[in-house]
C-alpha cells in the first residue's frame, strides 16, 4: 500500500524550512530542505525540483511563510523531529513542567534544562517569547540595562538578538560596528527589534537542550485541566488548539508562566485580581474597597511601515464609527477622543500632544517604538522604517480578558482587535498631518513582521495577570520613592527600596499603571531599583507550583514595575532554578524559603549562575 505523504513549510525568522514526511506501516521518514532568507535576497526564489518551483516577490513570500506556520505542522513525525515532542494525545512526565512560553517561561526552561533536568515547556501560540514576540512589545528596560540590573542569561538573549542582525541582516558598516546596536532606534528601548528576531534568539539559547532531549516544547498548546492531590499538583492537561489533541503532563514541579495565570484556577491555587483594598495592603494609592474586576488596559499591538507614495488603506473596520467617537470614561478625565495625538500625561494627567510624522521620522509617536530603522540597513533592504503601535490610542478599556464567561472574553478580544484596526484606519484616512492635511495612506500593516494574516500581533499584551496569594507580597511602599522617603525619613539621594533577605533577582522601572477597566486614569509613580523576593514566587498553600512571570505575589500597584521584560525573565529564571533545585534536593520551595541555610545555599547557586541579587 502507498504511504501517507505530507509536505509543508515551517517559518523560522528569516529562513525557510521545507519538509516532506512519508508515513507507511507505522514508520516515518522526513526530508528537509533549509533556505536562508537574507534581507538582501533576490526578488525571486526558486525551490528544488522535487518540491516544484515557483517565484514570487520577497514580501509576498515572507507573508506566505508567516501564515504557513501553524497549519503546516501537520504530522507528528516532523513535530517530533523538531521539538522531541511526544505522540499526540498521550502522556509525558518531566522533572519540571512549565506552562506558558513567554519570556518567563523560556527563562525558566533554560535555567532548569541547564541543570540537566527534563523539562516540558508549552506555549499557546506558535512563537516563543510572549511580550517580546507574539505580543509585539519591544523591550521596556531601565537605563542601566547594558551593564547591570539583569541576569547573565538575559544579557545572552540581548547579545543573541544583536548578533542575529550582524550575521543575517544587511546592516550598514556604521550599524554593524555599533557595540550596543539598537536596530530600530526606538526611544523606548536600547534594543528595539523585530519580533521574529527574538524568536530566533530564544531558539539559539534553547536549541542545545532541545537537541539533547532535555527540553520538549509544545507549541499551540494551552492548559485546560489539572489534577491535584491536596496541596500538590499531579498533572496538567493541555490541548493543541489546531488539532484538538490533548496531552497529560506530569512532573515533580510546575511553573505557571502563562500570561494570565491560567494554572491558578485550574489547580485551585488561591489568587488575587484587580485592585486590592487599602485595608489589606496599606498602600497609599490603593482604594478603600477592593476592586477585583478593575484591571489595567490590555493592548492588541501591531507593526506599521510607511512607504511614500503608496496607498495601503485597509477596509473600514466594522466598529470604526464606535471607536472614532470613543472618549475613554476615566477619572480624572481623558482630554478628548481616544483617536488623537493628544493624551493624558501619565505623570501629571494633563493633556500632552506628541508629533506623528512617519515621513520625516520625527521624535514622537513614530520614533517611540520604532523596531526597524531603514537608515541602519543597506539601501533597498527596507522600503521604509517599521514602528510598533502600542500606544494609549489602542489601550482597550471596555472589559477584562480573563475570569469572564467565554463569550464575553471573545467579545473583548474582538473589540480590542477592532480598536487597533480602527486606529490604523484613522491614521490612514483622518489623522491630522503637520502639513495641514489628513491621513497617511502610505502607512501599511506588516503581516510579515507580526506573523499573522491581519497584521496584528498574535496575542494581546495583557499587562495584569491573576496573582498568587504568596508567602510574601510586594507592596507599593516597598518600592515607591515617595513612600520609602516617608517611611525611612531619608531624602531622595539616600533612599533605597526595601531590602529582601530572600532576594532572587533585581529590577528597575517606574510604577507604571495604564488606565483601567473601571475608570482609573494613569497611576505613574517614581520607584527605586528593587529586588525580587523568593517568597513572592511561592504560593501560600501549594507545595510544588511556582509563579514564573507577572503572576507572582505583587499587587495591582506594584505589578506596574514587575511586569517588564528583564524582570519577567528574572522571575522565570529564578523559578526554573528553584524547581530544579527542589528536584535535586527532594524538597519544595517552602522548605527552602523557610530555612536560612537552605535559602543561602540556593541564593549562592543563583549568583553562581549569573543572577544579580542586589543593586
Automatic annotation (TrEMBL):
Pfam families: FAD_oxidored (PF12831)
Domain of life: Bacteria
Organism: Roseimaritima multifibrata
Signal peptide: none
GO biological process: NAD+ biosynthetic process
Name of the featured protein: Putative FAD-binding dehydrogenase
Record-level Gene Ontology MF annotations: L-aspartate oxidase activity
Database matches in PANTHER family: L-ASPARTATE OXIDASE, SLL0471 PROTEIN
InterPro entries: FAD/NAD-bd_sf (IPR036188), NadB (IPR005288)
